[in-house]
Amino acid sequence: MTPKLAAPGRLAKRKGSRPRHDGTHFAWFSAWAWEGPRDAVWRSYKTPSAVVLFPAKMGIILAKKTASTQMFITLKGFSTKVEKAYPDKWLSHHAAAVYIHASSSRIALAKTLHQMSPFDPAIDQLVEIAQTAFQLPTPAQVAPPYVMGTFAKIVNIVAPKSNKSADGRDQWPSRAAFLLASMGGCAGMGNLLRYPSQTFNNHGLQWFIPYLMCVFLIAIPVLVLEIAIGQAYRGGCVVAYNNISHRLKGTGLSLIFVGTVVSPYFVVNLAWIMIYFRNSFRSPLPWTGRSEEFYMQDVVANVDPIPGNFSADGSSVTKYVEYPGVAVIGETVGWAVFTWFLVWVSIFRGVGLTGRVVYFTMGLPIVITFILIGRSLSLENAARGVRFFWATWNGSQLSRGTIWQTACGQVFFSTGVGFGYFTSYASYNQKYSNAVMDSIMIVSSNVLFENVAAFIVYGVIGFLGITPGGGERLGSFVVGFITLPTAVTQMPGANFWAVMLFFTLMVLGYSSAFAMVDAIVTLIMDAHPRFSRPWVVTAVVLAFFCLTLPYCTEFGFYLLDGVDRWINDVGLVFVVWAECVTSTTLYRWRDVVGQVGLPAFLSFNGGFFGGMVLGVAIAQAVSPVAGACVGFGIFIIGLVAAILLGKAPDAAAPKWWNRSVFGSRIWFVALYSGNQLRRDLNEIVGQGTNWKIPAFWAPLVRYIAAPTLSIVYSFSYPSFYELRDDPLHIFGFAVGHIALIIIGAGLIVPRWFDILIPPPRRNEGHHDYGANVLVPADDVGSTSSVEAGNGSDQEAKKRGI
């Protein structure tokens, strides 16, 4: 039976809107005239193409599908228009889709929303309509089809293209692939090297009190934010934060900036590991008896700097540090090229390929880690090293701020929040995945891995007779390039264990490297460039390789130290602080102003931000007690002013807060934005049996995580003052502050960042007034978000709130 096509809908181009066909929205990117015979369009494609027939008053629409774009040809009289559109948006339930295969003897039906069988006789009638209306050539007249070569077949098997989600965006092949990729991003050298060094310097079970508090109060809440917005808003950092507020595009870009700064020098770390890996095949191991000299002279190969001087009273710099070595180190460059090639291979085809790579980058290191743990714990006196950490209690350390600051920094850096790749990775999830469970699983696995892997170092410390608390402190570089290699030289079968050690470090670090780069690629692809993903990945990797070269010089180690310290202590900490406070302040802020008035909104937030800024400043300049008093005092003044200046809300607050008008005012100025963000996100990530974001999440992010991060951030300035004679530390300090400038520019002039967002999605961060009204799940991130090069934009639906 021939399917009855519905009555034609109207298809018209309107200014500021999109074409419509029977209620189905089409993206409208651009249109231009097609000149030449109509069959020339068909003949120009040698690969199988798709034909879609739409009954319309303007004529029949022929849609031809290629691997990278959709071509719409609208015939009306003698005119022809060609329009680009997303591949998933042009099928309506009133359309019949027919695939025309150049290599086939017939035109076969691929898909219709009538669910027609490919062998339905009605297909032949649709074929006749298509051939008559468009004068299409028969299959025999079409140019011979393109036959995929053997190499292309191998590439498609090894590096398959990504699956597509319902909205057309690339999608992970499985939930396990997303979890492994995310775990690989945060589980790296920071777990295997930095964590044991921090626990050594703060040895004892008391370490776990501040450590676990930071895990539950900072790491998990912030990670829930990053994953939930990426998944719900179907985009990388800039697109996701633009959905929270159009003034947060700078906040989203600042996350990408941190990864952009870290990636180049992170690869140099991996290059040094590869130098050790290469030398692990030499017998005896070349660092035997000279571990420190081998690292500094043979691997890093930097020329010692000429120290600087301060004035007698220390108030000014009389001579700056000088770095006489400027030559490029060839072997470091070579291994950097090798590492960047691995990064390129892992991400050039998208998450379809990355989803396979992560099984190797996470699975194999875990297996080798357990082998190394067994070997370490079998060393003589290894139990003594374990007892330093698991059978010792130093409660007096809890009264000092050092252990709290260190624990916060460790959790913060090892979890990986603030680099942008969690949001980017989550954007390739299914829209309604269980974001809360995924976040907890990622953090929990990271905590478990770094505490288990630390036994490698614990056993070595006992074996080498190193005693914590005796004035000797360990750092990440010392553990990875001196302590562990020294222990390896004293083991039977030293070469085998050296190969295992450095191979594990390389694979763990490499998974973190391509995660950071993938976040940048997602940013570019979300902006819909004219080039396909492989070309974009190639350009990004080449640019990053150029940024790597300064770290491959005879002063590169000192440049790395300067940039690494301040991009973490200044840039990264401030970026995550900004994530916490801006998302819970500016989300649907018009609702707050509409309920309590602008003076109340400004008074409260002025007290909140002013209290943090002045509080930590006075704490550093005078004393922590004075800083706490000033900070809380300013906050309370702002809160009281907001209560007195605010008008009575006409929307209901939750039960307890709604008992009085003062309680309602406090609710709206202090808690509404964060809670409404939670509610709207739960409409997507908390559907069905998914874990919902709990009610205490927003207060944790705003009033616990943010103030804690502001305290950690404040320690960076006194530390820099002691190093202000070093030009490389000055440079790193300045680079770290660029993140602050990006965030500020986004708040003040958000239109500067519009180029990073497709035009149809730029207005998604403008929320109309509607207190307590939930955003429908279908309206959030509903715009088709196929990565650029695979389709066109569809203008975002303007939200009702």
Automatic annotation (TrEMBL):
Topology versus the membrane, per the UniProt entry? Multi-pass membrane protein
Q: Kindly give the InterPro entries that the UniProt entry links to this protein.
A: Na/ntran_symport, SNS_sf
From the Swiss-Prot or TrEMBL record, state where the protein is found: Membrane
The record lists the membrane-crossing segments as 176-195, 207-229, 250-277, 323-345, 357-377, 403-426, 447-466, 496-524, 536-560, 599-619, 625-645, 700-718, 730-753
**Region annotation Disordered: residue ranges?**
1-21, 781-801
Task: Please give the superkingdom of this protein's source.
Answer: Eukaryota
Instruction: Give the primary localization class.
Output: membrane
Q: Give a GO biological-process term.
A: sodium ion transmembrane transport
What Pfam families does the annotation carry? SNF
What segments bear the compositional bias annotation Polar residues?
781-793
Q: What is one GO cellular-component annotation here?
A: plasma membrane
SUPFAM superfamilies under this entry? SNF-like (SSF161070)
Name the PANTHER family for this protein.
Answer: BLOATED TUBULES, ISOFORM B-RELATED, SODIUM/CHLORIDE DEPENDENT TRANSPORTER
What this protein is called in its record is Sodium:neurotransmitter symporter family protein
